[in-house]
Amino acid sequence: RALATLSRVTPPPACGVEVIVVDNASTDHTPQVVEQARETMPFPLLLLREEARGLGAARNCGLRHASGSIIAFTDDDCIVSEDWLSRIVAHFAGEAPPGLLGGRVELFNDAHLPMTILTSMTPMRLAAEEHPGGLLLGCNMAFHRRLLDRIGAFDPRFGAGTPLVGAEDQDFIQRAQRAGFAVHYEPDVVLHHNHGRTTPAQAESLLRGYAFSDGACLMKHLLAGDRLALRLFYWRLASLVRQARRPPAGPTGVPGFRLVWAYLRGAGRFLLRSRSLPGAPRIAPRPPMEAPEPIGARDPA
User: pTM value?
Assistant: First the structure.
């Protein structure tokens, strides 16, 4: 479904488009699905395989082979709008372009729990002292390649499939923010998330994972000497402690003490086991992509 909707995306004016699928060491029929999608995909479609498990490593695999000047990410359980790429390119072509752009994420299925979505209709800018967790989701994110020259790629220690569970996008956003790049949320860049979570147990697993990776990510930045990370670490912990004092409510309610424990475990995990591992690598620049006819190649995306 994700590839089918990408095949119907309207290409931005004067832009070439390439689609890169990263198979992160799957054991299913992903290669066959991609080959079938190639028949109807109007853009060049590249299938890569990354054996190192983790979303950070998978994103970096795609970056090493991407040749566009604007790089947009989505996930395999997302359905993008037809104007998704056109909207992204328009924002980067504006008078005050973002360094990093995030968009609106709506539920695909109303039977799914209202999680992993961002539905605000108000454009927002991430302030220097803000935590980036609630403003941008990695499943709907874009940036100009020049950002990589300044901050490097994603940290492969983070992301789904790693011991640190998640936060590869949060870490990337924080590094961009600290480097002085403007981080924008634009609600007209929209997709729908078909995440499939319907039970309280699934909600708890997700929220505990978020808390765990949050603690790990903030510990990384704290150890790197980011003084703001110390305040953010305290504020996040204080928020979880306040939540622990209240009874859980609704289908996504989780006993707060479990989130506090997950948060502290994540911080401890990074401190004791992950800080010595290699962090974010540099990505060598690629030659500019050649736009498929009849689309021009003036500013490939």
Answer: 0.91
